[in-house]
Amino acid sequence: MLAGLAAQPKLAYAFVERAVALMRRYWLWEAVWVVYSITTSLSVVYIALAAPAVTGEQVDPATTSRFVLYLLVGTIAWRFLGIVFEDIAELIAWEKWEGTIEYTFMAPVPRLTHLVGMSIGTVIRASVISVLVLFTVMLFVDVDLSRANALSAIALLGVGTVAFIGLGIACAVFPLIWTEKGLQMAYIVQAVTLLVSGVYYPTTVLPAWLQPLSVLSPATYVIEGMRRALMDGADLVALWPLVWPALLIGALSIPLGLRLFTWAERYAKRTGRLKRSG
User: Fold this and answer.
1) CB atoms within 10 A of CB 195
2) Which of 84, 104, 127, 228 has its CA 20 to 30 A from that of 52?
3) At a CB cut-off of 8 Å and minimum separation 6, what does 268 contact?
């Protein structure tokens, strides 16, 4: 038993290597997504810079700079969390596209080990893309990070990553159950999460009937906490009211996601849906 447990990190690392190999294999697509991420991030930031021209009002440069940072933090944080969610939610689709789903699911590897390895691989990908986007945007726009508490921001992003891994695993169930429309359903979940999480605006501007959904989204707490950390220098003690809800969602979403995934995998094998794409 101990020997089996000792082998799990190596097995998980094999899936990390596989994820990196896929990035290298489809490097042109990775370049496309990096360029797309940079251009969309710049577009959002330019909204802040254009605010005086759009409103016709004079705006203090310090206010404009704060608005730029407000939108940039939300954009970069969502880009990172979105990649984590997408890569894990697309796990089944990728296996089908590569024609490896039957081999992977029949391999004598615990599902937890498989998903941990895939999660580490996607966090690496999300980190690389997000760092590239951030530094490229900073070449075009002046960003004031003089008051930033980087440690608090990284901690918040780590907490959010755990929660989004659980959400992604739960949504990866959709393509297992509904082979034709499952992946689209995962994208709908992502879109609704984007809407209610305050990525580009405070959640208080949402209609009253939508605001309860923002309470359930871990991104709401992560993005607000990162803004306070990077814009106002807040430390983890001050951010604890935002940290613990995200931690709680992560603690609940990962076991629930794993349980749902295991059930859906058994259902797919029993009904012959692993290889089907329609």
Assistant:
1) 16
2) 228
3) 176, 177, 274
